[in-house]
């Protein structure tokens, strides 16, 4: 090996960062298939030519235990050993693996906790309560704030009278007259 070899600890650190990505219950000792694909994508192991997402999925399935849905760091290393010669064609297994490790070291999941809020004109139009007409208009008060349930549901009349009955509330008077 000509170049300085990368220590397993450095690769392990990256493995752990990706292993816990998006999973609050993860310990960092095992990685699921989704995060394995993510580490391969973020670290440019998947180049779209020599290594594709399909290759990564196949290798993941190959190295994991039959019934397991996650891989350990040992299995992860084994998976990288399988992917390295594919990614760096024409290099020796060792050299290819070292270059692959080089891609992974110091990396952590991209876009952690970044969700961009899109402000599209369509959203503004849809949420502009002044443009609502008909029965929908009744869902909002004057300021454009929603009335909640009161503005949305037909509140049932529990007075005991049939709808559209003109003489509602006159029963007591009739009983007194008799």
Protein architecture, described:
The chain has 178 residues and is mainly alpha-helical. It folds into two domains: 8-104, Orthogonal Bundle (Recoverin, domain 1); 121-151, no CATH class. 46% of the residues lie in helices and 3% in strands. The protein is built from nine helices and two strands, in the order αβααβαααααα. The protein has helices at residues 8-19, 33-42, 53-63, 73-87, 93-104, 121-127, 134-137, 149-152, 171-177, and strands at residues 30-32, 70-72. The protein has a two-stranded antiparallel ribbon. The mean pLDDT is 81. InterPro entries: Cyt_c-like_dom, EF-hand-dom_pair, TPP/p25. One of its GO terms (molecular function) is metal ion binding. Residues 133-164 are annotated as: Disordered. It is found in: Cytoplasm. Residues 135-155 have a biased composition (Basic and acidic residues).
β-strand percent reads under 5%
| Fourth CATH level, the homologous superfamily of the largest domain | EF-hand
Distance between the termini: 112 Å
Give the beta-strand count. Answer: 2
CATH class division of the largest domain: Mainly Alpha
| Shape by Cα distribution | elongated
Query: Mean pLDDT, as a whole number?
Result: 81
Task: Show unreliable segments.
Answer: none
The percent of residues in helical segments reads 40-55%
Kindly report the CATH topology of the largest domain: Recoverin, domain 1
Determine Rg (CA atoms, Å). 32 Å
Strand order of the largest sheet: 1-2
The total count of helices amounts to: 9
Largest sheet: 2 strands, antiparallel
CATH architecture verdict of the largest domain = Orthogonal Bundle
Name the helix and strand elements from N-terminus to C-terminus, one letter apiece: HEHHEHHHHHH
* Structural class estimated from helices and strands: mainly alpha
């Amino acid at each position: 090996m000509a170049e300085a070899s990368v220590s397993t600890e450095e690769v392990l650190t990256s493995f752990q960062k990706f292993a816990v990505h998006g999973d609050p219950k993860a310990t960092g000792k095992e990685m699921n298939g989704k995060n394995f694909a993510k580490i391969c994508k973020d670290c440019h192991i998947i180049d779209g030519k020599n290594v594709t997402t399909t290759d990564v999925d196949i290798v993941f399935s190959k190295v994991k235990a039959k019934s397991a849905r996650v891989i350990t760091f040992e299995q992860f290393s084994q998976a990288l050993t399988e992917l390295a010669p594919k990614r760096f064609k024409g290099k020796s297994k060792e050299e290819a693996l070292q270059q692959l490790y080089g891609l992974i070291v110091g990396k952590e999941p991209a876009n952690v906790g970044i969700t961009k809020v899109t402000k599209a004109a369509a959203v503004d139009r849809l949420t502009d309560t002044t443009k609502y007409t008909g029965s929908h208009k009744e869902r909002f008060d004057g300021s454009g704030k929603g009335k909640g349930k009161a503005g949305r549901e037909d509140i049932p009349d529990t007075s005991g009278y049939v709808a559209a009955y003109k003489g509602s509330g006159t029963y007591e008077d009739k009983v007194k007259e008799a």
